[in-house]
């Protein structure tokens, strides 16, 4: 469906007309090009300020004249100048912080000849003086002649006052003249232009006529020079015809973008940039045609949506709202919505079967017109279809069966269908499908009026009798209508509504139960796999243990047969070594298995990579690990894993070596450079072992030699993270704060 036709069907004429007022020149609101590129441009315009595009005339006719080697007038040439000047302005002000706009403008190169053309015009379209001396000279001569004419008229008004009817200069047939009385021939020579109703004469004085003749000749010469200049400038434009066509098209592109940006700011509207591949999600949407509307929030996740319920309850406006939001989002027009929480799929086509197609001129009925519109859609794909009062124009039972088949056929395509209906037949036939969603327009039975709210997952009641009574139908007539309709049908409708609701609830519960069953099966399968894996590992370990035991026993028997004590002891040692090697291998395997986190404490035996040692100190998330070879490491606590002590632990001396007390500061005043650096290295090593994160080194200022040496040493030390001059209260430039 053409966008303009859809605009009329969705009551968006005034909204689109208001938007078109922001365009620099008249054009259709539908843009050509990649939508995502437009999205990038619009997002970048939100963070920058640009002057709006100038008002331009349609240049297609001028471009056609240039293609045919025609000559343009100055007004048409100046339109091209305004076009090129605006792009030159954009290229100057748009910078790298708007990368997509910057890259687009950077790809547009204005030829030097066109830049020179822009320099010969003033902002009002007049030629600048000083560029064309001949034209400037003639313009000055014309101006001087006009001054002489004004002076001559002034002198005549004074000298021939006795013969003048008034002191005004009259314009007759676009000619300046004086209104004289009879008998003026003796006082003033001139040409009679016309005669007034009172018998007076409009006279062009002879002296002024001569000046007018001179002025006319100058004007003719000026027009001749201007025409030659237009030919020259048109020839220059004709050489850049392809560039001008391209620039004219790019101007329309930017005009579309800037108009949308300005329209959104002026009316506090938002863009829906995000394209959904599934559900239609509208949050706080307001149809532009409504005054003080109630914001609509709804999510449609089914392929077919049936809107049922009360008359005048907003079903049609809900349908139009969904179509309207999809249309405006597709063409990146802003509207009232919470864009951050809304998602709208991008449909290739949008169709609306809303109005009554009955037309006596075409001899077509309502139902026949609907069938014609449906037939045109059957061959389409990737579309959103909205149908209002789907059974309109024919028997509701027959229509329900027919539309059920048509909707099922369309559901096989890549499309979404939204329809409204008063009749429950179609809803009852379609409600059992997984791809069908139901929405009911709600009714306030206490206040006997529609609530203009919607409930998803239910079939709504039409409340035709109540609505008729609210709009002036006498209660007696409504009661008689209920009697004719019969209580059985009323009960039947209620049963249909109730059964449909129960069926939907049951399907939802079944889906929930299926999800729980699937989760239970996944957990059961995972547990079975874990049991099988554990049994396999157990069998493998058992077989390996038995094999190791047999090998050790065979080794021992072999040496016992030799009946040699020395060999027997050697065999026992070999068997013991085999068993220990197996035990150590099993221990290493257990270390590599994931285990629950174990809180280490001081004195625990732990493993770090391939090294093992004792935790001698814990400092928050850090610790000091003393390895079996006596080396101490400061490590993050989470990198250690608990480990078992080896059978033969390292001997610890009974009298530990006295530890050197470690201070947080070191004073190097008065020391030689070599001595100071050696003492500084020892100090840093002790500080690292003590677990200090920050120390203070005093070196003094003096000649600066020791200060420079200390700085170079700290730069090259692998364990120094950073250092800086100390605060003034801790030594200032004569000390360094060192972070380890």
Provide the fold topology:
Layout: H1 3-9, H2 13-20, H3 35-45, H4 60-67, H5 74-93, H6 99-106, H7 112-118, H8 133-159, E1 170-172, E2 175-180, E3 190-195, E4 201-205, H9 206-239, H10 241-267, E5 275-276, E6 280-285, E7 296-300, E8 304-309, H11 315-330, E9 344-345, E10 349-353, H12 366-377, E11 383-387, H13 396-410, E12 415-420, H14 424-430, E13 436-444, E14 449-456, H15 464-470, H16 475-485, H17 487-561, H18 565-592, E15 605-608, E16 611-619, E17 622-627, E18 632-636, E19 641-642, E20 665-667, H19 673-690, E21 694-698, H20 705-716, E22 722-725, E23 735-739
Parallel strand pairs: 5-9, 8-12, 8-13, 10-11, 11-12, 20-21
Antiparallel strand pairs: 1-2, 2-4, 3-4, 6-7, 13-14, 15-16, 15-19, 16-17, 17-18, 21-23, 22-23
Summarize the structure.
By secondary structure, this protein is an alpha/beta fold.
Describe the structure.
- The protein has 740 residues and is of the alpha/beta class.
- The chain folds into five domains: 121 residues, no CATH class; 88 residues, MutS, DNA mismatch repair protein, Chain A, domain 3 (Orthogonal Bundle), CATH 1.10.1420; 206 residues, P-loop containing nucleotide triphosphate hydrolases (Rossmann fold, 3-Layer(aba) Sandwich), CATH 3.40.50.300; 38 residues, SH3 type barrels, CATH 2.30.30; 75 residues, Ribosomal Protein S8, Chain: A, domain 1, CATH 3.30.1370.110.
- Helices cover 48% and strands 16% of the residues.
- The chain contains 20 helices and 23 strands.
- The chain has a six-stranded mixed β-sheet, with helices on both faces.
- Helix 13 links the parallel strand 11 and strand 12.
């Amino acid at each position: 469906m053409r966008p303009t036709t859809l605009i009329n069907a969705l009551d968006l004429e005034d909204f689109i007309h208001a938007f078109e007022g922001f365009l620099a020149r008249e054009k259709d609101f539908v843009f050509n090009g990649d939508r995502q590129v437009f999205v990038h441009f619009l997002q970048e315009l939100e963070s920058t300020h640009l002057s709006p595009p100038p008002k331009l005339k349609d240049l297609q006719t001028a471009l056609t004249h240039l293609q045919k080697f025609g000559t343009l007038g100055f007004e048409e040439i100046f339109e091209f100048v305004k076009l090129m000047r605006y792009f030159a302005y954009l290229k100057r002000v748009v910078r790298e912080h708007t990368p997509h706009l910057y890259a687009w403008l950077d790809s547009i190169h204005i030829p030097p000849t066109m830049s020179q053309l822009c320099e010969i015009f003033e902002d009002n379209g007049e030629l600048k003086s000083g560029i064309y001396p001949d034209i400037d000279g003639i313009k000055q001569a014309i101006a001087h002649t006009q001054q002489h004419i004004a002076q001559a008229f002034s002198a005549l008004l004074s000298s021939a006052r006795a013969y003048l009817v008034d002191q005004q200069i009259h314009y007759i047939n676009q000619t300046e003249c004086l209104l004289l009385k009879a008998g003026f021939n003796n006082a003033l020579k001139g040409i009679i232009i016309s005669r007034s109703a009172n018998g007076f004469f409009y006279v062009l004085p002879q002296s002024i006529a001569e000046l007018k003749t001179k002025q006319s000749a100058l004007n003719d010469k000026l027009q001749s020079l201007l025409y030659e200049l237009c030919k020259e400038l048109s020839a220059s434009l004709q050489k850049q015809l392809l560039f001008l066509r391209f620039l004219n098209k790019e101007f329309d592109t930017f005009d579309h973008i800037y108009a949308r940006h300005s329209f959104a700011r002026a009316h506090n509207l938002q863009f829906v940039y995000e394209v959904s591949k599934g559900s239609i999600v509208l949050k706080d949407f307001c149809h532009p045609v409504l005054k003080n509307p109630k914001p609509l929030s709804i999510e449609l996740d089914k392929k077919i949506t049936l809107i049922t319920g009360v008359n005048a309850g907003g079903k049609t406006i809900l349908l139009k709202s969904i179509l309207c939001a999809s249309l405006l989002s597709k063409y990146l027009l802003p509207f009232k919505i919470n864009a951050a929480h809304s998602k709208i799929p991008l449909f290739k086509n949008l169709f609306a079967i809303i109005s009554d197609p009955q037309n006596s001129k075409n001899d077509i009925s309502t139902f026949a017109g609907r069938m014609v519109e449906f037939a045109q859609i059957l061959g389409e794909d990737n579309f959103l279809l909205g149908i209002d009062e789907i059974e309109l124009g024919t028997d509701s039972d027959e229509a329900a069966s027919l539309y059920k088949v048509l909707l099922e056929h369309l559901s096989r395509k890549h499309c979404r269908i939204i329809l409204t209906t008063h009749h429950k037949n179609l809803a009852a036939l379609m409600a059992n499908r997984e791809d069908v969603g139901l929405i009911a327009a709600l009714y306030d039975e206490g206040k006997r009026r529609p609530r203009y709210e919607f409930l998803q997952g239910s079939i709504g009641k039409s409340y035709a009798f109540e609505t008729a009574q609210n709009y002036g139908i006498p209660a007696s007539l409504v009661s008689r209508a209920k009697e004719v309709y019969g209580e059985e049908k009323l009960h039947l409708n209620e049963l249909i509504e109730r059964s449909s609701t129960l069926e939907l609830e049951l399907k939802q519960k079944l889906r929930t139960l299926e999800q729980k069953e699937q989760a239970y099966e996944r957990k059961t399968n995972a547990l079975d796999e874990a049991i099988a894996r554990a049994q396999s590992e157990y069998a493998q370990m058992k077989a390996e243990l038995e094999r190791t035991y047999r090998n050790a026993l065979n080794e021992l028997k072999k040496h016992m047969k030799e009946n040699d004590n020395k060999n027997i002891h050697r065999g026992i040692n070999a068997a013991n070594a085999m068993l220990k090697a197996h035990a150590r291998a099993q221990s290493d395997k257990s270390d590599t298995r994931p285990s629950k986190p174990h809180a280490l404490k001081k004195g625990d035996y732990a493993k770090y990579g391939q090294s093992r040692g004792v935790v001698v100190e814990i400092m928050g998330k850090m610790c000091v690990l003393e390895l079996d070879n006596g080396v101490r490491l400061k490590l993050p606590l989470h990198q250690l894993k608990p480990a078992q002590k080896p059978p033969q632990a390292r001997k610890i001396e009974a009298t530990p070596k006295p530890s050197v007390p470690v201070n947080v500061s070191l004073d190097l005043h008065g020391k030689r450079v070599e001595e100071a650096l050696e003492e500084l290295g020892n100090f840093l090593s002790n500080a690292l072992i003590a677990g200090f994160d920050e120390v203070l080194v005093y070196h003094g200022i003096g000649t600066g030699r020791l200060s420079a040496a200390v700085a170079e040493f700290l730069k090259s030390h692998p364990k120094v993270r950073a250092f800086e001059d100390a605060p003034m209260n801790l030594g200032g430039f004569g000390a360094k704060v060192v972070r380890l």
